[in-house]
Please model this.
Amino acid sequence: MLMDGTQVKSRQRVANHGEVYTNRREVEAMLNLVRRETERIDSRFLEPACGHGNFLTAILERKLDVIEKKYGRNQDEFERYGALAVGSIYGIDLLQDNVIEARERLLGIFTVRYSRLFNAAVKYRLIESAGFILERNIVTGDALKWIMADGRPIVFSEWSLVTGNLIKRRDFIFEHLAANIPLDGLFSDLGEEAHVQAPIKEFPPIDLLELGTSG
Model:
């Protein structure tokens, strides 16, 4: 993992992929331009060239700050909205090592915050579920061609809370979504005129603690 402030992994990667990471100071300055959205728990963010997650981790930290302030003494509510925050963040990158690192950093941020607040009461199955969500949301692929590294279409999952600890998943082909992505979110309500494609698959609501073992 790169040290904070390091902008390149190697000259070869810069030459081959134009890979230069954004410093934390610039990340925060840019996110401040849309501060209200970064602090809205259910607002969705997609980074089509996410690198190892500098923007995505900063967004998750802001969302968790809001959740902790509201639900830091209510474990059930923190778990529900924490999972929703994790599920609101999407990323694509050409390089698999970046994707793996971005997932690890995001899961680490969630795990540290959750563990600090609830200590011995932490439910490790929830952490597994957060990891499962990140495997679906942060993918190796080409955002310009809409495809995964193996040539399949990029598919993203929409995660929404139902009742109690239930969460619902719907899968969409990214290319179909991209033509209608509004400024306020990846899966926002666009109205009938937008003609958004139907999900390619819908899953029945499932308990948050079972999501990580759902396959």
In short: The chain has one domain: 20-29+37-180+192-213. Residues 20-29+37-180+192-213 form one domain. The chain has a mean pLDDT of 85. The first strand starts at residue 45 and ends at 47.
